[in-house]
Amino acid sequence: MKKFLLFIVPFLFLIGCASPEKPNNSLVFYPSPPLQPRLQYLLSISSEDDIRDPGNDFMDFLIGDIKSEKRIRKPYDICSTPGKIYVLDRGYKKLLVIDLEKRTFSHLEAQGLGELGEPSGIWVSNDDTKYIADMKRRQVVVFDENNNFLRSYGNNGMFDKPVDVAVYRGTLLVCDMNKNQILVLDKETGRLQKTLGTMGRDSGNFYKPTHINIDQAGNIYVNDAFNYRIQKFDQNGQFIKSFGFHGDIVGAFARPKGVDVDRNGHMYVVDSAYENTQIFDVESGRLLLYFGGSGMAPGSMFLPASVHIDYANAQYYKNFADKDFVLEYVVYVGNMFGSNKLNVYGFGHWTGPPLSGWN
Fold first, then answer.
1. Which strands, in side-by-side order, build the sheet including 192-196?
2. Second label for 331, Cα 20 to 30 Å away, from 77, 181, 267, 304?
3. Residues linked to residue 17 through DSSP beta bridges, in sequence order
4. Per-residue pLDDT averaged across 197-208, rounded?
């Protein structure tokens, strides 16, 4: 595992004017110098205009700058595949597809048996199969790589309020908020194999869980929202440890939401009340870094609900990174309100001269 120093730092640091000792533009890094940055705020994507091709300058001169009406409203969950970002938008009650190669926005046109009611959580497999937890249908609805309806899980009333879903090998894991459980299904047959937890505050139990994620080793991470913690289980459903507690200091949660884990054992947890994202070491449980914060400054958040780590598309954002900051992957945070809906941050390492400050 790569070393990740313990950085408990202020939310934002705005870098000043250009000089040979620092980046050429006013940029946002975390943590603040003199510590070397590990995250850079890159941009926000809120409409098709934010990713579209600049096009023909002469045509722009003739007809003016026409603004796209395709926008993000309330991004609640996020996934990605090479060249695409999938945003579960609870404002439109649809799955938004952001095509980074074509620089376009579109919606998954789900009709008939695949029509969505109140979609809440999404998981996209490596083959671009999409699993969507739908609270109104009380089902998990599945679409193939061409966005055609494949099947649904939970047709027998198995779920009460499915809010999120994750897939690992031959199993489907569904986070049910009302049942205060994780339901584990056989992916092929849809049969219930077992459940994790019940309502309670003891380790392994839940009180209004909202999000679930799985790391490469099959470990399960559940946002146990009203217990103000993230619980970790192994791939067999055995409790391992919990992260966080209720409070107003670093390492605590007030309204935890989305969770994701990178390949080096760093867990990202977004908090819609504190409007930040905290990074923990999954081995030790230590808080490593937090970023974001409320306000109007670049990189700030406004009622964020989702966080997603994307290794497949970092190349699309290289031009937004400082020349001395090498991107390893990007991190998306979805804001339910405000003008900046999808914040994009780059995780990486600094290759420039040592940072002793920006004076």
1. 162-168, 171-176, 181-186, 192-196
2. 181
3. none
4. 97
